[in-house]
Amino acid sequence: MKKTILVFGLLILALLLLFQFSKYALVSNNLKIEIIIAIIAIVFFAIGVFINKKSLHKHNLVSKEIDHKKIKDLEISNREYEVLIGISEGLSNKEIGDKLFVSESTVKTHVSNLLSKLNAKRRTQALQIAKDLQII
Amino acid sequence: MKKTILVFGLLILALLLLFQFSKYALVSNNLKIEIIIAIIAIVFFAIGVFINKKSLHKHNLVSKEIDHKKIKDLEISNREYEVLIGISEGLSNKEIGDKLFVSESTVKTHVSNLLSKLNAKRRTQALQIAKDLQII
DNA sequence: TTTTAGTTCATACTAAAGTACCAAAATGGT
DNA sequence: ACCATTTTGGTACTTTAGTATGAACTAAAA
Predict the structure, then answer these.
(1) How far is B93 from B104, CA to CA, in rounded Å?
(2) Contacts of residue B91 in chain A, CB cutoff 8 Å?
(3) Is A51 an 8 Å CB contact of chain B?
(4) CA-CA distances (angstroms) from residue A109 to A106, B94, B121?
(5) Number of independent structural domains in chain A
(6) pLDDT for position A38
(7) Are A85 and A91 a contacting pair, CB within 8 Å?
(8) Chain B residues touching A49 at Cβ < 8 A
(9) What is the CATH number of the domain that holds A105?
(10) What is the predicted pLDDT for the residue at B58?
(11) Exposed end of chain A (fewer CB within 10 Å): N or C?
(12) Tell me, in Å, how far CA of A102 is from C1' of C12?
């Protein structure tokens, strides 16, 4: 919230500066009107894209973003997470091993640890829980 | 694709008109420079919001809807689809059987048929493919 | 009515997945 | 250098998943 207010404050300040600058530039004839219009257009286009992205993020995209903090809270290691990604891609333990250049035994160890950390009985359940927790 | 080209064509046309109008208005002194800048700003802000919304829709909202037509095209039966849902919920064959009031054998039959229809080797791969095809 | 597709279930089998336990390297911070 | 954690991988085992095949029943379509 504080961040939002700060951003909007800076934005308004920048716009006022731009406004004054364009008037000054016009009067002193340093810049052509086309250039000024182009600058205004680009700036406001960018603001439109930015504002829209922000507001959509809050409502629709939450489920698309990965909660890295939760991964750490669950004490899931790097390698375990890579294995989880492999599972979500529908790979077998052997295939995950080939992808990560380790043996199938190693993958099984990671999977087993992953399941207990996610409190899952099966890899499919792990996927469902991981999606629910927004870590994949 | 054709639609996109049409929209962009009209957009460019509208901008050119706006451009010429602003120059004319300035020369003839009918409008103040502040008003023109404000119009440009509002128009480009709206364009920014519009473009952004369109591009986000294509990526995130389509994937939320189930393609029932594709399910029929793949010749996936009612019961097989119910089993697929069970798989996506992370259930074992036994648990799916309990949920649908059939034996584990029956579930295995459905799963096996489902895998060949989805061209998958494992249930996790079936999930990945089904998501890709937007049937779950 | 015969056919077709879907659902059900069983047996017997093979292949993966998952658990339990152990142990050796590698890594990273204090 | 030392400690804690991660990563690795093995053996032995149990459980679950998946295949192949055959068969019975149902409902709807031809």
Answers:
(1) 6
(2) 124-125
(3) yes
(4) 5, 25, 22
(5) 2
(6) 75
(7) no
(8) 48-49, 51-52
(9) 1.10.10.10
(10) 57
(11) N
(12) 34
